[in-house]
């Protein structure tokens, strides 16, 4: 009996999952211990982090070659939803002095961009858990938590649709390595944003009576 290699060869996404597993866990712990849904103040800080990350990748969703490789990519962007959530909660959209990682109209290394998109699209899976917590603050897909809401086709089918396209893209060994580096860089970037955004000013010390 001949055995196909499909069971034994790691897909690109599985390889990336294994590669970023430790960073994902650390990020998950760091974010969870911040309790982003403890109050609207915490959630506002979480949105600042999300805004920065989704702004970094937003230009990729308009890229013609990436849209050819990943049909429907343009509809996957979530920056506008994050901005809507900020407006819902009366949070000013920050005017950041640093440019986003990917800038509209500039050359993009496709393999690197794929790694970033893997991280961005995957983050929508963990959002299922976060979306449930958002309800505690009275937020949902119509108000304040647009960017965490499931895709109309369902979160898992939407992710599997992405994976099918993503895993089918042909890259040489060098391209695979750049995709790995892109996914890792995206995780590092989010981690840095969590570190700077997801902190609240120290509570005023209580005055001794
Ligand atoms: C408290 C925060 C987070 C929690 C609780 C969380 C949780 C999860 C869970 C449970 C999954 C697996 C879902 C499944 O297989 O059905 C997942 C997948 C994933 N998450 Fe997170 N996540 C969090 C934050 C993030 C962030 C901030 C990012 C990156 C920006 C991220 C990137 C990913 C990626 C790329 C996957 C897909 C892994 C794969 O290839 O299957 N996550 N997350």
From TrEMBL:
SUPFAM superfamilies tied to this protein: Heme oxygenase-like
Pfam families, sorted: Heme_oxygenase
Gene Ontology MF term list: heme oxygenase (decyclizing) activity
Superkingdom of the source species: Bacteria
One of the protein's GO biological processes: heme oxidation
InterPro entries (alphabetical): Haem_Oase-like, Haem_Oase-like_multi-hlx
Entry protein name: Biliverdin-producing heme oxygenase
The organism of origin for this protein: Corticimicrobacter populi
